[in-house]
Amino acid sequence: MPKRIMQGVVVSDKGDKSIVVKVERTFLHPVLKKTVRRSKRYHAHDDANAYKTGEVVQIQECPPKSKLKRWEVIGRVGS
């Protein structure tokens, strides 16, 4: 099974070797037929502490690294 890849904005880089990425998705409401935005925060592994708040990054699924971290950073988007 392929690993999922998501794109989002770094909202926190306070942890050591960790960042929090906010991923936003849009979908059509089944009854109202209106576009709805939902976001979710993922804890990701950043081995080099290279990513800062506000940057757009891609994250990929990985085996658990800690209690909350199930994702790792692939790289920046657009650079």
Automatic annotation (TrEMBL):
It comes from Candidatus Phycosocius bacilliformis. GO terms for biological process: translation. Part of the 30S ribosomal subunit. InterPro entries: NA-bd_OB-fold (IPR012340), Ribosomal_uS17 (IPR000266), Ribosomal_uS17_bact/chlr (IPR019984). GO terms for molecular function: rRNA binding; structural constituent of ribosome. GO terms for cellular component: cytosolic small ribosomal subunit. Belongs to the universal ribosomal protein uS17 family. One of the primary rRNA binding proteins, it binds specifically to the 5'-end of 16S ribosomal RNA. Gene3D superfamilies: Nucleic acid-binding proteins (2.40.50.140). This is Small ribosomal subunit protein uS17. Pfam families: Ribosomal_S17. Keywords: Ribonucleoprotein, Ribosomal protein, RNA-binding, rRNA-binding.
